[in-house]
Structures are given as structure tokens and as C-alpha cells.
Amino acid sequence: MNRGLLIVLSGPSGVGKGTVCTALRGKLPELIYSVSATSRQPREGERDGVNYFFKTREQFQDMIARDALLEHAEYVGNYYGTPREFVEKTLAEGKDIILEIEVQGAIKVKEKFPEGVFVFLLPPSLNELRQRIVGRGTETQATIDHRLSVAIEEMNLLYHYDYAVVNDQIDSACSRISSIITAEHCKRERFLHELFQELKPITAGENAER
Ligand SMILES: Nc1ncnc2c1ncn2[C@@H]1O[C@H](COP(=O)(O)OP(=O)(O)OP(=O)(O)O)[C@@H](O)[C@H]1O
Ligand SMILES: Nc1nc2c(ncn2[C@@H]2O[C@H](COP(=O)(O)O)[C@@H](O)[C@H]2O)c(=O)[nH]1
To answer: Which family does it belong to (predicted)?
Structure first.
């Protein structure tokens, strides 16, 4: 069985990763979503085990000590991390999984899974990014400013990624990512096919010599 695709979706806070990811999962119901662990407080409406596994800082540090996380990072004063076992099990079962994570974590995942597909979501402009964070109404003014300054640093790390997608319209961004996933599947299938074609004459020659 082929392993599943590991898709990493990053981008600055407020660009619309969560929104686009939800739309993408509607379009590709077989795509598995990796629920992260975090030490931040739940926002209104967020549910434990659905949006995040909400942990205290001590519980999170214990997960780090037990090597239960594939990657983790500290972002604007809180811990965030990807539970390892679920990702490894999903890929081994041949299913595709998407991680919605910030840039430091994505770079760590790339070191471990260079064959993953790394997508960076960009805002149409910085002004629109600010409007989206403010419009969501979940952050204090200080956190908005902090998240925006981190956003600039994050966008400077765009070159680590395989693809950049502008989230102008949710539907278009979602379609572009869906096309990337389809193309990556084709690439892998073609690679196997070409490898097989390359190996065939060699194997035939070896058999003739025997
Ligand atoms: N294409 C879009 N056009 C207009 N508004 C959008 C678009 N995509 C997302 N939004 C809005 O922007 C706000 C931020 O979106 P979302 O919470 O999905 O961002 P995020 O990147 O997941 O943020 P964070 O990293 O902080 O969790 C939300 O209010 C969402 O409705
Ligand atoms: N490195 C990781 N980053 C993660 C993970 N889960 C989410 N995130 C990113 O953190 C910021 C802030 O998220 P918010 O929910 O507080 O707005 C955002 O960029 C998320 O994508 C993770 O497991 N690892």
C-alpha cells in the first residue's frame, strides 16, 4: 500500500488557514485533519479534541518529554504541537493528512518528512491580513500587533515551501490547494510508473544472463 500524503498548510495568523482547511475538508472528505495540542486557552465555541487538545503548560511539557509530538513550537506565548502517533498511523494506512501549523513547526516537519507537501497561504495584502485578524474578534490589541509582527517574519520564510497560494477568495484558494494535492498524487504515481519502466529492461537483461 502507498503511504498517504503529508500536507502542511502554514501562513500568518489570520490569513485564513482554518477557514480554507474547513472548506478543503468539505471538498475532500477523505482528507484527515491533524488536531494539534496547545497550551492556549480555548476561544468561544472551540471544543477540546475537535479544534485542539487543550493542555496546561505542564501537560504540554510532559508531552514533549514523552516524545509524543512530531514537532512543537512556542508562538506568541503559547505552546502548539502536532501529536506524533496519529500522523504516523494515518500515513501508514495510506491516508492523506493535513497539518495546519505555523512556520517554525513546518520547518521541523520538513526535516523529518522532506517528501511532504508544504503549502504557504498568503493574504492578498498586509492591510487585508490585519482586517481579518481584527474582524475575527478573538485577539486583544496587543496580541494583534504581536501576531502581525510575527506574520512579517513568517512571510520571509516562504522559500522553505513548495507552493504559495493567495487566499483572496476562500473557494479559489481551496480549489488551488485541492489541485496541488491531485498533482502531487499524480507525480508520485508517475514516478513509480517511470521507475518500473526503467527497471524492466535491467531486470529482463539480468534474467537473460541467468
Ligand atoms: N478569503 C477570505 N476572504 C475574507 N475573509 C476571510 C477569508 N479567509 C478567511 N477569512 C476570515 O479571516 C478571519 C481569519 O481566518 P482564520 O481564523 O481561518 O485564520 P487562520 O489563518 O486560521 O488564523 P490563526 O492562525 O490565527 O488560527 C476569519 O474571520 C475568516 O472568516
Ligand atoms: N507549530 C505548530 N503550530 C500550530 C499548531 N497548531 C496550530 N498552530 C499554529 O499556531 C498559530 C496560532 O494558532 P491560534 O489557533 O492560536 O490562532 C497558527 O499559525 C496555527 O496555525 C501545531 O501543532 N504546531
So the answer is: Belongs to the guanylate kinase family.
